[in-house]
Amino acid sequence: MKILENITLADKTSYKIGGRARFYIEPESEDEIIEAHRFAAERGVSVFILGNGSNLLISDNGINAVVINLAARFSKIEWDGLTAVASGGFLLDDLAADAAKRGATGIVELSGIPGTIGGAVIMNAGAFDADIAKTLQSARIFRASSQTFETVAAADLALSYRSSSLKGGMDVVISATFEFETMVASSPSLTREKILAARNEKQPLDYPSCGSVFKRPPGNYAGTLIQSCNLKGFKIGGAMVSDKHANFIINTGNATAEDVRSVIRHVQKTVYENSEILLEPEVIFVGEFNEPLFTL
User: Model confidence at 148, in pLDDT bands (50, 70, 90)?
Assistant: First the structure.
């Protein structure tokens, strides 16, 4: 297993922003994941699991940790009829594409989401009124504290809106088992092609971003609230609220993590002053930031 030092993470995230990792590892097997954790323990540093880097804002100062990138080499899938077992580093969009080819229902709505299976399970990724919980049967988990593996039923993962019992913890999703049903309708209203087209039409996919920055508040939409405050186009440094979709903060070319964080805070403050709704970030912050989030 190759262990690299002082590796930049900006090119490993969809934001194209971020400092360096003290150590960086791309494991190919479960044994190498165990080895990476032992390496971190021996040096007294934490572990950070990196998937496709699509829902992250990594500090400009980097991470004093062992970064384990699962998307690079720990990525495979096996099908048995309409049951799929995908490894933690396998791309969610690739699973959706495979399912669509097999005429399987329940996950086509998640087409175009750029994360990995591991991240999707932890965040209970979703779109178009569907989410991972709809088809997930179980997940194989590496328990970092005990260095053991455990298969956990989906019902025991406390899956809820963009969350699970794994969120914020150190455990690793090694693989996940999904069970689908056969497409019954001959002309489904939502097809992979339509969903990808809708994403391309509504989202600023030509700029680096983390996807949706804020969670949907009850009874409303983050993008609608932000737009009502005339914040489209608001910019600090290289970070800007997208003119195309207000819940996207894009990197216009030279944004820093602090730029993005400052825009997030300004959006939170402005929306709260306008509607008394505090927007909760969906993006995960990694490392230390100078700019605090807006709080009450």
Answer: very high
| Inter-residue contact 239 to 262 (CB < 8 Å) | yes
φ, ψ (nearest 5 deg) of residue 15 = -80, -20
Q: Which of 212, 216, 261, 265 is catalytic?
A: 212
pTM above 0.85, yes or no: yes
Measured CA angle at 73 (ends 195, 11), to 5 deg: 70
Q: From 132, 178, 138, select the one nearest 155 (Cα to Cα).
A: 138
Q: Which of 75, 109, 111, 162 is catalytic?
A: 162
Over range 240-266, report the average pLDDT: 98
- DSSP type of residue 91: B
Examine the residue annotation and report whether 212 is marked as an active-site residue of this protein.
yes
The residue from 26, 32, 258, 282 that is catalytic is 282
Query: Rounded to whole angstroms, how far apart are CA atoms 105 and 96?
Result: 9
282 flagged as catalytic: yes
